[in-house]
C-alpha cells in the first residue's frame, strides 16, 4: 500500500506534533512497518477534538509505529480510494495486509494497543517467513548495523528509535 501524506495537516497539527509529514511536500509511504493514518477534514469538530489525542499517540508510538494525518479534503482521490465516508477515520496499514479500520475509543491507550497488536502480528509473520522484512527476504537490505565506539552514541544513544543491540566477544 502507498499512502500520500501532505503537510497540509498544519491546519490541525503543528510541525512539532510528532506526526509523520514533511514541509511543503507529499510524503509517500511505502513502509515496512505499521502505520496509523487519521483521515480528517479541517472543518470537522470531531477531528479538531481528536487532535491532542492523535499528537499524544504519535509521541507514545514514536519508534514503534508511524502515525500520520491526511487532510481528506485536500486529497479527495486518496480518501475515495480508501473508502473514507466520515471524519475522522483512522486506518491501520501493515505490510502485505489490507488496511484495518479503527473502531475503538478516541483515546491514546486503545489506539496504542491496536498499534501494538498490529506490530505483534507483523513480527509473528516475519518470524514465520510470511511478511516482508524478515530474514527470508533476500532483496531487502540488512537492518543490522555494526556498532563501534565511534558511532554508538550517535546511532543508538541519540536516536528516538528503539534499538536491539547484541554485545558479543569475537572469540
Please characterize this protein's 3D structure.
The protein has 171 residues and is of the alpha+beta class. The chain has one domain (3-127): 3-Layer(aba) Sandwich (Glutaredoxin). It has 4 helices and 6 strands. The protein has helices at 45-60, 76-81, 108-127, 152-157, and strands at residues 3-6, 26-29, 35-40, 66-71, 89-93, 100-101. The strands form 2 sheets. The chain has a 4-stranded mixed sheet with strand order 4-3-5-6, with helices on one face. A hairpin with a 6-residue loop joins strand 5 and strand 6 (100-101). Helix 1 crosses helix 3 (108-127). The longest helix has 20 residues, at 108-127. The protein is elongated and about 60 Å long. The termini are far apart. 25% of the residues are buried. Mean pLDDT is 76; it is low at 1-11, 20-29 and 134-140.
What order do the helices and strands come in, and which of them pair?
Elements: E1 3-6, E2 26-29, E3 35-40, H1 45-60, E4 66-71, H2 76-81, E5 89-93, E6 100-101, H3 108-127, H4 152-157
Parallel strand pairs: 3-4
Antiparallel strand pairs: 1-2, 3-5, 5-6
